[in-house]
Sequence to fold (577 residues):
Amino acid sequence: MNLLLGAVTVGLILALVSLGVFLSFRVLRSLDLTTDGAFTTGAAVACALLVANASPVVATIAGGVAGAVCGALTGVIHTRWRVDIILAGILVTTGLYSVDIWVMHGGNLSLAGRPTLFEQAAGFLAGGDQAAMSRDAVGVGLLAVLVGALGLATGAFASTDLGLALRATGNSPGMARAMAIDTDLAITIGLTLANCFTGLSGALFAQYQGFANVQMGIGMIVTGLASLILGEAIFPQRTIRRRIVAALLGAVAFRLLVAAALRAGLDPVALKLVTASFVLAALTLPQLVRRLVGSRKARREHA
Amino acid sequence: MPEAALEIQRLAHTFNRGTPYESMALRGVDLTLEPGAFVVVVGSNGSGKSTLLNAIAGSLRAETGRILVDGTDVTDWPVHRRARLVARVFQDPFGGTAADLSVVENLAIAAARGSRRGLGRPLASARRAELGVAVQQLGLGLEERLDTPVGLLSGGQRQALTLLMAMVVRPSLLLLDEHTASLDPRSAEQLLRLTQGFVSAGRLTTLMVTHSMPQAVRLGTRILMMHRGEVAYDLSGAQKRRARVEDLLARFEELRRSDMLDDSATALLQRAYV
Fold:
């Protein structure tokens, strides 16, 4: 039961990474590697503020803002200075490694008993009697509300003038420019928003595990892609709002899958290899199958 | 005298300058379009007509010369900024719309051309109804398919939608870039009728590039025939009204012959001296 609850909690936290990757990879059609850096920086900033006795709400929001700044930076490097999006993301993430260590005064920063957002919420609900509420149960409730609200807001944003401009920029950049959309600005706004979600996720993750670590974001883009693709496979949808829901649920499903695999005896060290292989398979198998089916059909028609 | 809708001054551009592939695509083109003029540009491949259109739209930055739209110098403006004044319909039906977005979403994007895009809700029911009425003008039944992704429409339907999207906000200048060329004859004819209707109803200043001589003769108030980066013939008024397909073809032939003469003269000189 605790394992299940933990998996759902982490899944809900990482659903925000999935949402960010949905924005960059699906809506803007850019592979944004800032994800790795923004996640860690969001966590580092939140932890540093908590250690300095800031309120958990402020620290969490600050983590989101830090992520947004990272995304904006990648956007500017990519659109203004014409650096390839992948390289721009790598450059920002690499640079952030130093920044994170400065922010945390080291490679690790423990929250060491400082109240986090989860404890604050549990305390609030139980009227001070924290023991009465399971920390994990409150966490799941709090996160479900938070992630749900952000998902709804993103869905509503998608059909605003600005949201449509972002979607057109990813889908048909030539058309977007012909419709007087500044596609460079649209990409920058999209990356800012995507990494704001990622930074927020990092801030929440650090509070959940009780510390931040300069390496915690490594491979986060792959985890985000895996969640997104899994969500799309389990809940195939057409409208943008439902696709957002699928991306969020995909992250939870992914964590449940991971928990089940670990429970079944998967070596935790193998997790990243398995995740990367899953993303690779998901991206290449459909083409491979199509080619195989296509050539068989061609052969049949030839005969 | 009213301000010119489009004024082009000494526009020149050379591709691959300084390489063996150097080619002068535009050699100092001067052109003035009065408001409401409907100009059809014809010319063979490589005559510079597409380069001219790209330079006006801003997707190509001409090396020298100025471009003014409604009296505003737009020479240094990027594509998206010029698009506030200049609307364009591309040859490729897939280029002018966003395939994954629905009909009404595409229209909503077009309806915001030239205004600030914020958190307004262009798909709220009242505005959605307005866009539905607008799309009725096409007579294709798209008002019943507002939520259909544009990618599921036929090439002709997409191109008609693109044309409407260029009109939803009245442009100072409308550019039509061989916009019927990739359609089947029936859809092309349908689109041409729509174009004629929209342009005359809105008194739009229009520059249309086409390969089709019958289109050039039938449409517009003025014909420009481009050749080797220059305007070789400029027919307007009574001359344009009298022009027939055979006349245009004859002029084409004339240009071609003078080219061949040039070529054979060069060959002759080469044989004699090299």
